[in-house]
Amino acid sequence: MQRPYNFSAGPAAIPTEVLEQAAAEMLDWHGCGMGVMEMSHRGKEFVSICEQAEADLRELLAVPAQFKILFMQGGGLAENAIVPLNLSRAATVDFVVTGSWSQKSYKEARKYAAEVNLVASGEDGDFISLPNPAHWQPSRGASYLHICSNETIHGVEFHELPDLQALGSDAPLVIDFSSHVASRPVDWSRVGLAFGGAQKNIGPAGLTIVIVREDLLGHALAICPSAFDYKVVAEHGSMYNTPPTWGIYIAGLTFQWLKRQREGDASGVAAMELRNIAKAELLYNAIDQSPFYVNKVAANCRSRMNIPFFLCDETRNDAFLAGAKARGLLQLKGHKSVGGMRASLYNAMPLAGVEALVAYMHDFAQQHA
After folding, report:
1. Quick check: is 44 catalytic?
2. Which fold has domain 17-258?
3. Is there a catalytic annotation at residue 363?
4. Domain ranges within the chain, ordered by starting residue
5. Which CATH fold topology does 263-367 show?
6. Any idea what DSSP says for residue 30?
């Protein structure tokens, strides 16, 4: 029986194979007599789960050896405080604001950094395009420059990470990649730190992934809690405090699922990128070719993961959502701050789900023309 297609922006769909394996292992993981939620985080069983998850993530994202992978808690929102607590050095930090999430990050950093410089912003244009890096104005000697590389609410995405050195900045680039982690490769030569909540492309809410270059460790402000000090967390192998064990386990199963994916000659994250491009193009084409729907985001920075769209006649929104639910197409209502609709096409969303959505959109338009 086909499960409904879940287009939620997060917590989001998890691959069916992963859910089935977790269900089979719920009461007894590999014959040890315990489920993962019951294990000591320091016991050999869970330590093996955690080490395998970290190794698989490093392989999938081709994370260089000089980066530490940390499993933390608090979600991306908490990292808005934890990053400046670790990296600001009570000096100036730079921000590029491209939507709701980077705007939250910018405001939170002002509590901890001596100065927060707004390098560029897309707010005047309603966050439907990205500021051209050629016009950015990074500050000299900034501790880091922060971007959200995919804005979940507004649907804009950096398809290529900015090269800060080419802009005359030697600041490390910090990226919030919560909503596109593992959907495409990462150019680590341009990144100092990347963080993301797991609940979009990796697993359940409760786990946060931080990937940080080693030279950025050891500079936390005195007020930084020990459990949030990246150096402390790294030295303890993400076990300084009790980690989100269930989230790490499900993430590990998802990483193994990702490693099994193939698309032509591509595998893993490279295969997922090809699929994600195909899914996004299918939905964007359906929107653009219909007078019934509209997407307002500039074509050169449209998100592959989160696609907001509007009915040209918004009095039909409730009917659209009711009809979608009846056809097994769930969680399509847009974020309350922008309205309309939103389809999130994370890795777990198959092409068949997007095809079903496009078919429904066509039928709905025909019925209400």
Report:
1. no
2. Aspartate Aminotransferase; domain 2 (3.40.640)
3. no
4. 17-258, 263-367
5. Aspartate Aminotransferase, domain 1 (3.90.1150)
6. T
